[in-house]
Design a protein that fits this description.
Layout lengths: L3 H33 L1 H23 L3 H22 L20 E2 L2 E2 L1 H18 L27 H17 L7 E5 L6 H14 L4 E5 H8 L11 H8 L2 E7 L6 H16 L4 E5 L4 H18 L1 E5 L9
């Protein structure tokens, strides 16, 4: 996973590569046309020499108006030559991907919107590669797969309950801001926790916010790498700390070590202090087990700082 700055730089590199390709393709087209139409090449050379003559006259003194008329004549000659060869005036101009900035990445002194668009796509690619489902949508969450018989603990059917939870998640995504609350999705495997978390991620990304996804197992694996030192400014951990929204999926599947607990505490505490929302999912349904696994210090920050939603029903991944 990359930090926001790394994504920004990657987007600028992609835009620079696009610009270079466009310029090279335009130059290749120009050379091919000149090779096929010698008169076109001669007219272009005449215009180039007239332009140089004007610049020299302006610098050293002379009849500037005559030099300008000569340049205008060669421009007209080039235009006629292009028409006779079957080309329009824009034939050899680079076809830039972004008409706003000409693939420079900057517009009116600030980053162009195309930079954010590319950074958002790169982040989507990261999430799709890291998550088991890829980014999901609310429209693909099928509540009809949940039972419509009343669940005693709920007082309503799992289907009715999940319909309400789906709308709650949709509303959360639509109204998302840096001040949004943390969410904790608890429930047995296959009940749609990851699906809804990734649907929120998809919608929040589309709104222009930066979203990161990681499973708890991937987090623990990263932390267990030999010589890993989270105080050294590791970019991966910084990315998790600074994301506008972090999805921490499948708590309870990671291998727990003192280092895991320590860095998990650091991550959660940093995001709480900076007011950045996090969505957690876990198959652990007993809060006492949750506390025993993660220690009271860590668990209290997750359970106490989150709006908890329990998921009900049967495993939706089973036929």
């Amino acid at each position: 996973m990359r930090t926001k700055d790394e994504l920004f730089r990657a987007a600028l590199r992609e835009i620079a590569a696009r610009r270079q390709r466009a310029v090279m393709q335009a130059e290749d087209a120009r050379r091919a046309a000149f090779a096929a139409h010698p008169a076109l090449a001669e007219a272009d050379d005449a215009q180039r020499r007239a332009g140089l003559a004007l610049a020299k006259t302006a610098a050293l003194g002379g009849d500037v108006e005559a030099a300008r008329r000569a340049l205008a004549d060669t421009e007209e000659g080039l235009h006629r030559a292009m028409q006779e060869a079957g080309y329009d005036t824009a034939a050899f101009r680079p076809a830039f991907s972004c008409p706003l900035c000409g693939d420079t990445g900057m517009r009116n002194g600030v980053p162009c919107s195309c930079v954010a668009d590319i950074a958002r796509r790169l982040r989507r690619d990261e999430i799709n590669a890291a998550s088991p489902l890829g980014l999901c949508q609310f429209s693909t969450f099928d509540v009809t797969r949940y039972a419509d018989q009343v669940e005693p603990e709920l007082g309503i059917s799992p289907r009715t309950y999940m319909e309400k939870l789906l709308e709650t998640c949709r509303s959360y995504a639509q109204k998302f801001s840096p001040k949004s609350t943390n969410l904790l999705f608890m429930g047995h495997a296959g009940l749609g926790k990851t699906h809804l978390a990734l649907a929120i991620a998809d919608a929040v990304l589309a709104s222009g916010y930066d979203v990161l996804y990681t499973s708890s197992a991937a987090l623990a694996a990263r932390l267990s790498r030999e010589h890993f030192d989270y105080d050294s400014g590791d970019e991966w951990l910084i990315a998790c700390q600074e994301a506008d929204l972090l999805i921490l999926d499948d708590l309870g599947t990671e291998y727990i070590t003192p280092l895991t607990i320590s860095v998990l505490y650091e991550l959660i505490n940093t995001r709480m202090l900076t007011g950045r929302p996090t969505i957690y999912t876990t198959n652990i349904t007993d809060q006492s087990v949750f506390v025993a696994r993660y220690t009271e210090k860590v668990a209290s920050r997750m359970l106490g700082g989150c709006k908890v939603y329990k998921f009900f029903g049967t495993d939706q991944r089973l036929p």
